[in-house]
Amino acid sequence: MRVLRSPVPPLVLACVLMAAGGARPPHGHDSVSLDFRRDIGGFGASSNLIWGLVGAGRYWLPWTPMSLHPYLAAGYRAVAFDRASSEGNIQMLFRGPLGGAGFVF
Questions:
Q1: To the nearest whole percent, how much of the chain has pLDDT over 70?
Q2: Which of 20, 23, 77, 103 has the least CB density, counted as fewest CB within 10 Å?
Q3: Backbone phi, psi, residue 53, to 5°
Q4: What's the Cα-to-Cα distance from 99 to each of 13, 43, 68, 69, 95, rounded to whole Å?
Q5: Is 66 helix (H, G, I), strand (E, B) or coil?
Q6: Of 39, 61, 60, 59, whose CA–CA distance to 51 is shortest?
Q7: What beta strand segments (E) does the chain contain?
Q8: What is the pLDDT of residue 67?
Q9: 60: region left, alpha or beta (phi > 0 left; psi from -120 to 50 alpha)
Q10: Distance (Å, rounded) from C-alpha 101 to C-alpha 35?
Q11: C-beta of residue 83 within 8 angstroms of C-beta of residue 51
């Protein structure tokens, strides 16, 4: 049995680096990256459960003033909040598109 190995594709490498905390794909790779984040919390401290999901794409601009790496982002976000208290029960779900610009230094 032969196992063939090939180099990791740049987009997969960029996703792995961002999952590990890297915010910018390595220099020389694609100018588009994907960002996926999730949060979970609550557990009775201030609420029963809080969770959030974000999926976004980033376009890294080729312009780098003062060693800054600017980008444009567009994606979708969902955040849920569930709080049960003695005075009332609150359940909220916020979701919708997001857009923005930023930079990494």
A1: 67
A2: 20
A3: -130, 140
A4: 24, 30, 20, 17, 13
A5: helix
A6: 39
A7: 32-42, 49-60, 69-84, 89-104
A8: 85
A9: beta
A10: 14
A11: no
Tell me the CA end-to-end span of the chain in Å, nearest whole number: 47
H or E, element range at 18: helix 10-19
Residue 58: which residues within 8 A CB-CB, separation 6 or more? 32, 33, 34, 35, 71, 72, 73
Supply 88's token pair: 């009332």
Q: Which amino acid is at 45?
A: A
| pLDDT recorded at residue 3 | 36
Residue at token pair 């029960």: 89
